[in-house]
Write a sequence for this structure.
């Protein structure tokens, strides 16, 4: 057992020496940056399109506060389409399977396939029939992504702003652990017709130019474990097996001696 322990500890020690450059973000940016800044092309942000089951926070407020005081209970203010006069308020309007939301005053409108800005302009045009210079705000409130693997805080993340990048996602998950592979991060994106798989390399600044730099609703990020963690896990498994075999052997020996002395 002593020899096995030495072998295990040696394997963990030598395989856990991860090169410094493998655990540094954007390490291809040269040191000359200390004297002179450098620039590179950036990915253009494209607003996501609203789809069924998205949750929208929508507020319609007349510019005249006097009018607002009179009709505020019947205005859309983040509810589910029912009057707000009862004091209860839902977190938002759920887009139904056909892509519609039902707003007070304005009525039922289709929002799927539109950006938040387009929806705001459309509702503003409809609200102008009833109010002079209405102030309309629209926000997607259930933008969620999932980050799994070698991060400090894996799980599903609700993002307050739909403009979120892969770097933002890793930050929301607490960063990559020392056992994670900075150069082998997987994006899984589900669309209506297919699944898209993309690899990221956070060791390289080229990630800022990736067409997949900005994430979409429902994206899943997986940070793979490094070989050192796999080896360490195997060593622990082998150690546990060794302990179990030793215990079984001791039990067999005890039973054999017990039977021998009993007779």
């Amino acid at each position: 057992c002593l020899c096995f322990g030495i072998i295990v500890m040696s394997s963990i020690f030598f395989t856990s020496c991860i090169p410094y450059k493998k655990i540094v973000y954007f390490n291809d940016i040269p040191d000359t940056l200390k004297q002179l800044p450098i620039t590179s092309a950036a990915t253009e942000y494209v607003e996501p399109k609203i789809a069924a089951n998205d949750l929208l926070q929508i507020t319609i407020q007349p510019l005249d506060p006097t009018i607002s005081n009179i009709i505020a209970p019947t205005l859309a203010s983040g509810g589910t389409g029912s009057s707000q006069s009862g004091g209860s308020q839902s977190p938002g309007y759920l887009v139904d399977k056909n892509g519609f939301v039902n707003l007070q005053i304005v009525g039922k409108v289709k929002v799927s396939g539109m950006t938040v800005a387009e929806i705001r302009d459309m509702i503003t045009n409809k609200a102008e029939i009833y109010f002079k210079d209405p102030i309309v705000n629209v926000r997607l409130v259930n933008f969620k992504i999932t980050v799994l693997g070698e991060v400090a805080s894996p799980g599903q993340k609700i993002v307050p702003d739909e403009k979120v990048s892969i770097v933002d996602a890793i930050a929301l998950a607490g960063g990559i652990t020392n056992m994670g592979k900075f150069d082998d991060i997987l994006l899984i994106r589900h669309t209506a017709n297919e699944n898209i798989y993309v690899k990221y390399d956070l060791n390289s600044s080229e990630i800022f130019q990736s067409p997949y730099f900005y994430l979409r609703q429902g994206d899943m990020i997986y940070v793979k474990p490094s070989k050192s963690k796999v080896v360490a896990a195997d060593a622990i498994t082998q150690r546990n097996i060794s302990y179990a075999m030793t215990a079984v052997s001791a039990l067999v020996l005890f039973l054999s001696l017990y039977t021998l002395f009993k007779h």
Q: What stands out?
A: The longest strand covers residues 180-190. Residues 1-8, 68-90 have pLDDT under 50 and may be disordered. Helices lie at 2-15, 65-71, 116-127, 166-172, 227-262.
